[in-house]
Design brief:
200 residues; 4-stranded antiparallel β-sheet; 3 helices
Length: 200
Amino acid sequence: MKRSRDEASKVLGERMLQGWTMLGVSCPVEECYTPLVCNRQSNKMFCVRCNQYVLTEDELKQQQAEQKNAEEVAAIEKDQAETEARVEKERRRYVEQQFRLEEQAKQAGRMQELDHASEEAGCGIAPRGAAKRKIDMTAVQSSSDSDADVNAVRRQTLAALYQKMEALTNSLSPTDHSERLVSVARAVREIAEATQLLKQ
């Protein structure tokens, strides 16, 4: 904040009492034109009314150059930081990709092991299956032979029963009494029931 001329004059006197030197140049700020003072320790010009240091042309150029250099350094550091961030991102992506590839390779290896184990198990099961089928075929053949024998026995039994039934029927005569008729009828019925069972 700019001071008034009276305040500036008062501060100027105080600075000179403190050892500051009043220079023969005035403040370059428009409508100020207050004489500048210089501190012997810093050797920099100061305006008591503007309350700020005043730079010479060379100092201004140097300050601008330093500011430009600082901006360039900041831009370089920013680019380096962005580059490092991209490199780190690519590195992490590469690591994740390698991890996924390794996991896929492990999974493929496990699948191959399972397939190999399944093939080995299949090779071991096939003979047992063949043996089982062979046993089943033998059992079927034996069962067929047994059925043939049973059917042959049935046919023989049926033939014998038919012969017995025919003999009983032929033995009847008009003079037979009722008890004999009942006995023959009972025998014929039993033979018929046995014949029916053999046909099932």
